[in-house]
């Protein structure tokens, strides 16, 4: 027999994603192309082991610095009930938008649970989801991370 994670246990992911605390948020951050061609932080097998945004940065990730960039905090997240047929639990939120004013090579986007937006540090930001987001930011207009119609996160 293989290991089994009960559908209800998958709710821990959904618990954070649905913002259970008074001053919490989902925080989106994007990361630049590594300057070190041998950087391993961007590999899923490595990235999934980090426990906070601070861990990700301490292991070689460089957050975007283009003019017009700031982390995006969202307080609107939705979810359906557990899907016992698909054995999953999905969450969704609005698309994420930035208005860049300088060019930069971007490789990843990630969202984090911030348990208290009024205090804390990057060590408090719990990683929930990461996705490839490869592009060179334009110097005008907007860039949008379009959230999949089925949601950005799915606990399986």
Would you spell out the secondary-structure blueprint of this structure?
Blueprint: H1 11-17, E1 25-32, H2 44-47, H3 53-58, E2 72-74, E3 78-79, E4 89-92, E5 96-98, E6 105-114, E7 126-136, E8 143-145, E9 153-155
Antiparallel strand pairs: 1-2, 1-6, 3-4, 4-9, 5-8, 6-7
> Helices and strands: which structural class?
mainly beta
- The radius of gyration computed from the alpha-carbon positions, rounded to a whole number of angstroms, is 16 Å
Number of domains: 1
What is the CA–CA distance across the termini? 18 Å
Biggest sheet strand order reads 2-1-6-7
Give the overall pLDDT as a whole number.
83
Order of helices and strands: HEHHEEEEEEEE
Report the count of strand segments.
9
Characterize the main sheet: 4 strands, antiparallel
Strand content: 25-35%
Low-confidence stretches: 1-5
SS summary, helix count: 3
Helix content: 10-25%
Global outline? globular
Describe this entry's structure for a reader:
- This protein is mainly β.
- The protein has one domain (7-155).
- Helices cover 11% and strands 30% of the residues.
- The chain has three helices and nine strands.
- The chain has helices spanning 11-17, 44-47, 53-58, and strands spanning 25-32, 72-74, 78-79, 89-92, 96-98, 105-114, 126-136, 143-145, 153-155.
- The protein has a four-stranded antiparallel β-sheet. A three-stranded antiparallel β-sheet has the order 3-4-9, with helices on one face.
- The longest helix is centred in the N-terminal third of the chain and has 7 residues, at 11-17.
- The protein is globular, with a radius of gyration of 16 Å.
- The model is unreliable at 1-5 (pLDDT under 50).
